[in-house]
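Handover notes (outgoing to incoming on-call)

Open items:
1. GDSL esterase/lipase At5g33370: sequence verified, structure written out, both below. Nothing else pending on this one.
2. Nothing else urgent.
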Amino acid sequence: IPDLISEHLGQASPLPYLSPMLKKDKLLIGANFASAGIGILNDTGIQFLNIIRITKQLEYFEQYKVRVSGLVGEEEMERLVNGALVLITLGGNDFVNNYYLVPFSARSRQFSLPDYVVYVVSEYRKVLRKMYDLGARRVLVTGTGPMGCVPAELAQRSRSGECSTELQRAASLFNPQLVQMINDLNNEVGSSAFIAANTQQMHMDFISDPQAYGFVTSKVACCGQGPYNGIGLCTALSNLCPNRDLFAFWDPFHPSEKASRIIAQQILNGSPEYMHPMNLSTILTLDSTT
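GDSL esterase/lipase At5g33370 structure tokens:
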């Protein structure tokens, strides 16, 4: 998604922060701090080695500012960071790779689902507030997708292709509370610094009616193994579909490029149902006049 947004803006995609290529003028394009498998909580993704947790990513963001400052000076760095577009995607793994990772997980014994959602959202608030304090003034915050409808969950939890009700319940509790928290945070800082992207609805559009978007299926992944191609990772041993553009999901968890382009278009031009309080095109128009 960030690559597709960069493409729309006519800019190069920001390089990974730890890339040795990220130096001099390339630093001024931005940086990608993301790390697969992490969550809002530090205990999310403990089964993965060498993930860069969000606390560490925020430290890297601070380091990044120092490096940019060394290039263009403190004042220009602040202007650059304040004017930057930031995309943050967190939350899904706190359910899939934490609360529901195994039956009777530590977090599911500690919290009922509604209480866990409240806790996770309150921790997310701290992350977003820290980003604001570090100078981020235009932050796109995506909600979780429909977690119970991805091929991985269909393979594990579905008898006849229906979405997992428990994971869908988690998404339907988390996403509205995320929007409310963003509203509260915007009121606190006195601006529309944070923009909520309703990625659950964006996904559900093509999951509930794949043919309307030119897909043959939204249940089977293009690349994977087992039922719905939903087991394991996409490897050389996987089943591979002949045309990925006909599939809404590329692998057991992630949308295909064509599906991602649909999502990116909604981020850019979506109605208030999808983008709150405004879409990215409106932001770009506003920022070009100030």
